[in-house]
Amino acid sequence: MSDLQSDADRRKYHRIGTDQVISFAEIDNAERLAVSKNVSTGGIRFEAVGCEIALGDTLRVTFNVMKQTVVAIGTVVWATETDPISMEVGIEFMDIDPAALRLLEESLSPELESDVSD
Asked: What is the CATH number of the domain that holds 102?
């Protein structure tokens, strides 16, 4: 088993790759832009430039799923500097609208079907 497969096997949620501009902010602060890397029903991973984000921070993230805008609140569960001005961040959703959660589940369904046939 490759390292990539073992990482995927340990994951709690299936993820879909994304490459969209999203916004995020600490609660009650101005929005900042970032680029999402993947999203699941449990959270989102994104790359942010020129900001400090710490483990345990609570962030509001806004992104699109199937042409619908989704706003979720989550906790930073990991953050890694990728270079002196950029970092990748993993958010675990704490509060997401049930309709948005259903959209995420629907958007993941084709991915799950294609994984089974691989």
From this structure: 2.40.10.220
Domain count for the chain, please give it: 1
Range of 88's domain? 3-117
Q: Mean per-residue pLDDT for 90-114?
A: 82
Residue pair 37/13 in contact (Cβ under 8 Å)? The answer is no
* Chain segment 8-55, per-residue pLDDT in tens: 444 455 556 666 788 889 888 889 999 999 999 999 999 999 998 999
For the chain, give the longest Cα–Cα distance. 45
CA distance 31 to 74: 15
- 45 close to 89: Cβ distance less than 8 angstroms: yes
Look up the pTM and report it.
Answer: 0.76
Q: In one letter, which amino acid is 103?
A: L
Q: Which of 43, 83, 84, 81 is nearest to 63 (CA)?
A: 43
